[in-house]
Amino acid sequence: QVRLVESGGGLVQAGGSLRLACAASGGTFSRPVMGWFRQAPGNEREFVAATKWSGGSTYYGDSVKGRFTISRDNAKNTVYLQMNDLKLDDTGTYYCAASADYGSFAIRDKYKYVNWGQGTQVTVSS
After folding, report:
1. Which residues, other chains included, contact 87 with Cβ-Cβ below 8 Å and sequence gap of 6+?
2. What is the pLDDT of residues 53-85, one digit of tens each?
3. What is the mean pLDDT of the chain?
4. Pairing mode, if any, of strands 18-25 and 3-7?
5. Which of 28, 72, 87, 97 could form a disulfide with 113 if both were Cys (CB 3.0 to 4.6 A apart)?
6. Within a 10 A sphere around the Cβ of 112, how many other Cβ atoms?
7. CA–CA distance, 72 with 51 (Å, rounded to integer)
């Protein structure tokens, strides 16, 4: 059973930076795709970024392109989300998730992800 544990959330001023980490364990070979999603109160869970354990492909939601960077450390089974130039709208709970590889068309689809972390809160203040 794949287990995901997020860390690194917190309170930051607008324009600041945070780095989230997601430590994966328990059969990640069956979940080659790793994604980050976020959810603000009253909103749908939104795709943020994704990558794969093998290869260099990365994918981003439109609202974070150019500000967020997803990366991975295969030796540590950890995926990171570097968030720069944070905005008030970036506030929410950030979730790490794992999926089988259904191709690039599906990588933004939250329903394809079957393993989820508990979430870490990111709050951006003015």
Report:
1. 14, 124
2. 998 799 999 999 999 999 999 999 999 999 999
3. 95
4. antiparallel
5. 97
6. 17
7. 8
